[in-house]
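QUALITY CONTROL LOG
STEP: pairwise intake check
CHECKER ROLE: data steward
CRITERIA: each record must contain a sequence immediately followed by its structure tokens, with no blank fields

ENTRY 1 OF 2
RESULT FIELD BELOW
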Amino acid sequence: MRRLSLLSILMTLMAFAVNAQIISPITWTSKVEMASETEGSVIFDAKIDDGWHLYGMKLPDGGPRPTAFNFETLDGVELVGTPVPSREPIERVDMVFHLNLSWWAADVSFSQKFKVTDKSGAYNIAGTISFQGCNDSSCMAPTKETFEFSKGEVAAVTPAAADSAKTVADNSAVKSAGTADNSGWWAPVTFPEDADNASVTDIANSSMWYIFLWGFIGGLLALMTPCVWPMIPLTVSFFLKKNTSRGKSIRDAVIYGVSIIVIYLLLGLAITLIFGASKLNDLSTNAVFNLLFFALLVVFAISFFGAFDITLPSKWSNTMDGKVERTTGLLSIFFMAFTLALVSFSCTGPIIGTLLVEAASLGDITGPAIGMGAFALALAIPFTLFATFPSMLKEMPRSGGWLNSVKVVLGFLELALSLKFLSVADLAYGWGILDREVFISLWVIIFILLGMYLLGKLQFSHDSPLEYVSIPRFFLALASLSFAVYLIPGLWGAPLKSVSAFVPPLYTQDLNLYAGGQFREFHDYEEGMKFAAENNRPVLIDFSGHGCVNCRKMEGAVFDTQEISAIIRENYVLIKLMVDEKKALARPYTVEEYGKTVKIETVGEKWSYLQRSKFGANSQPFYVLLDNEGQPLAGSYSYDENVAKFAEWLNSGIEAYVKNNR
């Protein structure tokens, strides 16, 4: 570990290159506010990027790094109490660490009161903020920020300051002890000019589009249910007959469609405001709520199968009908749209409920608003479209048994989706009742039964006799049965990458025939580099973390395949460095980084600093290929589950290593 020389032009340019890949989703500013000459507060402001969260101050062991304020220098002051956050954190079961954790998902401030004890009013306060943040797809390594405030000259050095000075001196003396004998292994590098450095897939940034897409699909599904579909010709015909002017009819129909969007949008916002975004977020992550939602979806599925109907009180819809008759103009149209929402609840309720839970996982009011807006947009488009082109009504399929079939199909999908929520609770509590193969077995059965139903081999009480299988039903049955066949290899450990977000993780798999075999793995950088040099092998470094979701995905979907496992086992020395490892170093040390003094106290902090200082990155997963001098053989690689691409990248490193050692 060398200090980057700011006087060196080369090192300066390299520092800019390093900064280009460093992510800073959580930034800190601090200041001192004095209430009087002897009393004041240190204010720490944390700015948190959208989609990220800062972990709380009290966390159980085995989890992420809690937020902590360490006052290492206290000259002329004494602390009063402990740091107080501006608001309480969210509490929920985290599915990465499988622990009940707390965090802040938006900007937060902390206040630490102090009392000036020096008679002259002078003081010196210094220390570090240690913290860690995550989003839905990745975690930043545990990080430290320094702070320092002073006023005047303190008359005498307090014991706390003396201890701190001694610590710095000791750290300076042992700084080199934390590094390798071969300084080239730690020296900053530049990747080959033609290297294609992959970037981490940011799922959080695309989640808005994900919610919009599924909201729109949910609206289309709701449109084809017995509660909504028959309303299209009835409503459009009402507008066309009510007005002699076709232009006015079209205008009213457009207003009707806009009213539908407004109503559902307000409904989503109202539910979110009443219960709170954090409470709705619990529905997607908290184990208890997941159990309740699992039961709710099973009830909805049984209802869709025809056992009973879930409807709102008839008095509500009758009241809305009366409002429509007594009002005129825009208000009448709005009440008609509200009546549609009430009448169609038995079909749209399960879809809306599922959508709101998923949308609320974004952690704020934006998710439900986007989801419900997209859902309502899909519902509103047909009414406006058919009013504009009424001749298209003649081409609409008439109501009949096919609408009930749509409900039954939705019932199967609700039943399959319910297992996802049960899986969350199972993983959180560690019951082990829904391991990966059990989950996949149930999905295989569900989609086989769905295929049989679509082919007419299975019928429910409300179904009409199926005289023949239509072409759409045949292709839907083909898709369902094919999906069931696709799932079957997952019973023996196949990655099933297309549904990896729904099925339990691979580590819950009891039998895995797809594992490509084990290979030796080092967890110490110097030890691994030394072994590679002695055995003339290139090095694959895997910067990972205990709380890194995408790291686990890469391990299961890529590293565990026969092709990749064989390449690594036969050609590479694998060094896996966990940047959030909490094991304390035997001798902590300090480093200079971007003009700040950073204390390295844990093994994870050491590997995190290695990744930042040598490779200019601080997100995981992050992979690099090195020769025995610590120089890159190819560009870096991040989250990408393309096995062929990863194999090509590994092979390019082997070719470069062989070429350099001729």
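ENTRY 2 OF 2
RESULT FIELD BELOW
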Amino acid sequence: MRTWVRRGMIAVVALAWALRLYAIARQDVWGDEAFSIWLSSQPLPRVVAGGADTHPPLYPLLLFVWLRGAGHSVFAVRALSALVGVLLVPLLYALGKRLSSPPVGLAAALLATFSPGLIYYAQETRMYSLAAVLGAASLLAALRLLQGRDGLRDWGFFALTALAALYTHYDTAFLVAAEGAVLLVARRQRWRALVLSAIAVGLAYLPWVLVQRAFLADKAQARLQVLRPGTLAAMVRSTAALLLDGERLSVVPAAALLLLVAAGAAALWRRKEALWLCLAALTLPFLLAWLVNPLMPFFYPRYLLFVAVPLFLIAAAAVAAPVMRGVAVVAVLSLLPAMLSADLRYYRGEAMVRGRYGEMMAYVEREARPGDALLLANPLQAAIFDYYRPARPEAFFLPRLTAIDDETEALLTGYAERYQRLWLVRYGNPAEYDPDDELVRWLAEHGTLAYHGGWLDAELYLFVMGGEGGPQVSVDDRFGTSIHLRGYTIGATRLRGGDLLTLTLFWTTDAPLEQRYTVYTHLLAPDGHLVAQMDGEPQGGAAPTDRWQPGEIIRDGYAIRVPESAPPGRYTVRVGLYLLQSGERLPVFDAAGKPLGDGVSLGVVEIGE
């Protein structure tokens, strides 16, 4: 048996390496990762100082050393977490072997190898994989103590692993507390050693508590309304989903896991102390996290990633039960396809993509022209912008907005006068720094929207500046029952392929609107087929139709890029309104009430060679 288990473990570790390195650089670095990279790129005193990051400093310290040898490529900055994540597999084998037998260790290692949550965070430049590994090491140290290893080195190993875990993530304190409670009950005669170990850990951790206490106190809240059973159930469910399915907790893997846990607990019944240690390490972290949840601003399943260790240990122990061995093997094998399916969704799918900031900056650099500037709203993107900073255009961070006051007006006016085109990046949640979309509205009222796109964790706009004033052509076309197009301005009417056709529309409404309509602007070839278009809500979404006030004039600009391949000829500009959900277009009527179809033609432009 030893030979095939040894060979099996070699294969499992190799497989774990492959799964954690595969497509590791597929996704862009996202905000939290960029912050980790930025922090660990600072001088060492800054890296380990309190107040820079919410989390303790061990992972930033390791990353500090790693970056100076491995570099800053996407692969390099994530490879540290991949290496740490692989170490969890042989650790689980060692735990399972000590807990029961080598086959149990192999089964636990196999579950950890395929777990989508463990793979996911082994490919992220954050501390969660390290917290799981140190949690496993701490559990191994506690198990050794329970099984009679009682020397100074054994207690020192337990104290050291607990301290390292605490210096990695605060929630590992729940695991250490569970281990300590079991040791206190099971090894009552050695309570002095346990107390001395706790004192040593506390004294070694005290400097960080003193340094970080003010920073954490600012983040603490009092939300007693979340202290209800449903919250605890949601925490358990979301963490289980992360470890098994990646996104959701499906019935088959959940049932298989419950069967394995029950069978594993039965198999470990004769090793009661070890069983209680695993059960406490699995359940107490959830309970304690639930109890402190009202004081913390948020909970994420990744904070308890380390519960995968006791969970997979108990589940794997089912293969040691003679009566349940066949059922247990079938249950383990039924879990693996569900895990693998979640892994494939992560590697290939879009649902698990965390950000596209790098792609967005590459697009800006590719499309930027002389006379462009890049405006960055939200200072929280400083770290990720520093990582993906494009060679051009020149970039400026905007102050956090509450309103367009005189100072901000002067700042934006200066940019508009100095640069022909302004790119704008709205990163994160605009409700936190521009809740009324005043920034986009100001740029839309002083320029023409040439591009608007979502990049998952940010929105990107391009405005061609200038062109203020009233419409060159006045009309009174009615869209639906209340919306009126009062006029429009078409920029240059003689263009070439690659030029921008600028179009400014002037809207108003007779009555408040309940629906949010999307504007389409089409450039039609001489034969009537569509060659270019730009669709979007008015003013790039800053002036949605359901916020229009009766009688208010909405200046709404668009810049349509003429395709390079557009043949010479006379092209028609046509606009209309439609509901995005259904695609239904509003009927249009002229001033006399004559139907004009589902859009209106504004004029003709000539495309030359």
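INTAKE CHECK: passed for both entries
DESCRIPTIVE NOTE, ENTRY 2: The mean pLDDT is 91.
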